[in-house]
Amino acid sequence: MSYSGGPMTEAMYYILLALMNPNHGYQLMAAIEQVSNGRIKMGPGTLYGVLTRLQKDNLIEILSDDGRRKTYAITEEGRTALKADYERLKDMIQDGRILEG
């Protein structure tokens, strides 16, 4: 199954970006804050809801589950989707340069 969900939400984008290094939930919240330069402070409700969706879309996988915590990692399909959204965002910035003139 390939991701065809259209543009990613900001939460999806930053979770995938943070999962370039596998992580578990609470560490992941800190990693998201770090990769967003402090702009995004994601609570557990948002985080776990988006993690469930990303897993359903095969963009992330569970590397380990010791019953207490799950360690998540981005899949190859997730990397492809993240790169595509990154390119889309770069194109949007480029298109918006008209505002500078």
From TrEMBL:
Judging by the UniProt lineage, the source's domain of life is: Bacteria
Q: Where are the transmembrane segments?
A: none
Q: Where is the Transcription regulator PadR N-terminal domain?
A: 20-83
Q: Which PANTHER family does UniProt cross-reference here?
A: TRANSCRIPTION REGULATOR, PADR-LIKE FAMILY, TRANSCRIPTIONAL REGULATOR YQJI
Question: What is the recorded name of this protein?
Answer: Putative transcriptional regulator
